Amino acid sequence: MPAWRQRHGGSGMAAAAYAAGSTKRRDDVQITLVDPRERFTERLRLHLTATGRQLTSFDIPELLADTGVEFVRGWVTALDADARTVHLDD
Questions:
Q1: CA torsion angle for 34, 36, 38, 42 (degrees, to 10)?
Q2: Can you give the pTM of this predicted structure?
Q3: Distance between CA 83 and CA 68 in Å, rounded?
Q4: Which of 13, 49, 52, 55 is the residue whose CA sits 20 to 30 A from 82?
Q5: Which residues, in sequence order, are CB contacts of 15 under 8 Å at separation 6+?
Q6: Based on the number of CB atoms within 10 Å of its own CB, is 69 exposed (0-12), middle (13-18) or buried (19 or more)?
């Protein structure tokens, strides 16, 4: 999988929530997180599966509730900075 298609980590969600909090009084800003899955697993803990431990996965829309971040399920296929648009696979 190319690097630009790798899933976001916890830092991506934290950055989106921080940006939404920093701009919540602005009507001209909307923060959207796009991901092909609705579940989040902490990649930093994946090594624990080698010991037989089960990892908890979290519901992304639930994690982002009340943050002001909109969640959209999909793949980003193109960005148009001039038009300020993001194109998704569907």
A1: -90
A2: 0.71
A3: 23
A4: 13
A5: none
A6: buried
Q: Does 3 have pLDDT greater than 90?
A: no
Task: Categorize the per-residue pLDDT at 55 as very low, low, confident or very high, splitting at 50, 70 and 90.
Answer: confident
Q: Which amino acid is at 7?
A: R
| Whether 64 contacts 76, CB under 8 Å | no
Q: Which residue has the tokens 């908890």?
A: 56
3-state secondary structure at position 47: helix
For 77: left if phi > 0, alpha if psi spans -120 to 50, otherwise beta; the answer is: alpha
Q: Using one digit for the tens of pLDDT, what is the confidence trace for 13-35?
A: 888 888 999 998 899 989 999 98
The two tokens of residue 30 are: 């909307």
The owner of tokens 């920093």 is: 22
Q: How sure is the predictor about 2, in pLDDT bands with cuts at 50, 70 and 90?
A: very low
